[in-house]
Amino acid sequence: MQQKTEQSLPAWADPSPMGFISLAVGIFSMVPIFCGWVSPEAIMAALPWGMAAVIALIIVTIIEFRNRNPVGAFCFGAFGIIIAGALTINIIKGFTMFVTKSAAPVALVMGGMTVDAMAWLALAIAILFVGFVCGLRWRSFAIAVWIGDIGVWIISMVNFGVLSHAAGVVGGYFILLLGIYFLYIGIAEFINPAFRKTVLPLGGPLFKRPAPPPEA
């Protein structure tokens, strides 16, 4: 019986620049709503940007899994697709109600805020620990993720009714800072390899990855 040796498939191109820029675009399109720069009704203008970000992040996540990078796939998939996807679906729901000129029942509005609060809470807890993993790559990455996580915690508490909507605006600015950093990473990850030198520095790691055990 002939034995076949398993050969690893060649890796595809690194999709992380597109992933980070997609995250930045999704965040930037929602920040005017979160920060109160525009009327909440303008959230419908974010629909095409949210849909484009979701499609791009799905592609990025698939490639990350294909390249056997579970950390990248988890970050782009769990956070990018879930957050952008949920916000996009909420926008579609709001757009449908706007077109049909129907008002949401009070019970749906109040219950929806609690549901959103629980989802934001789960993300806030997860992002807290993801920041430690990000610190294995760059110190600034971990700090930016934790700064953005503050905004996620604030939005969760606003939906729970613990904080006022004015505090939600502050949370929006924390998330904006994360979006700016994602944009910087996406550009740096594209520019630096293209020029084969550090054009946009990203710094060193916050934590050192443990050395693998010696082979027997």
Detail the poorly predicted runs: 1-6
Helix content: over 70%
Structural class: mainly alpha
Q: Provide the number of structural domains.
A: 1
Radius of gyration, rounded? 20 Å
Order of helices and strands: HHHHHH
| Shape, principal axes of CA atoms | globular
Measured between the Cα atoms of the first and last residue, the distance is: 29 Å
- Count of helical stretches: 6
Q: What would the average pLDDT be, to the nearest integer?
A: 82
**Largest sheet report:** none
For the secondary structure, the number of strands is 0
* Strand-residue proportion: under 5%
Provide an overview of this structure:
This protein is mainly alpha-helical and 216 residues long. It has one domain (16-191). It has helices at 16-34, 47-66, 70-100, 106-134, 139-160, 165-195. Helix 1 runs antiparallel to helix 2, helix 4 runs antiparallel to helix 5 and helix 5 (139-160) runs antiparallel to helix 6. The longest helix is centred in the middle third of the chain and has 31 residues, at 70-100. The protein is globular. The two termini are 29 Å apart. The relative contact order is 0.13.
